[in-house]
Design brief:
single chain, elongated, mainly alpha, about 90 residues, 6 helices, about 70% helix
Length: about 90
């Protein structure tokens, strides 16, 4: 088994890569989820898959830092701010 990531910068990069891939490969679902104000329920399974992959690779001490959740906001919400939605 691979050693867990113990460096915050590496953990942040992994989180951002996972979420970036999710946003890129499921762009239409993300846009529809934002427009219909159900982004997280609509992508719950895909987000959980990414989160589980992140948890498997990162030291438990770093999980408390919320790096995966920050990546969700930075890469799944902010870039899609142009999408018409009742949430903004």
């Amino acid at each position: 088994m691979e050693e867990p990531i113990r460096d915050a910068d590496s953990a942040r990069r992994l989180a951002r890569t996972i979420v970036s891939d999710l946003a890129m490969y499921h762009k239409e679902e993300v846009e529809r989820g934002i427009a219909e104000d159900n982004l997280f329920p609509a992508l719950a399974e895909r987000i959980e898959e990414g989160r589980n992959h992140y948890r498997e690779r990162v030291d438990p001490e770093l999980l408390r830092a919320g790096l995966f959740e920050k990546a969700l906001v930075d890469l799944l919400l902010k870039p899609f701010g142009h999408v018409r939605s009742t949430i903004w």
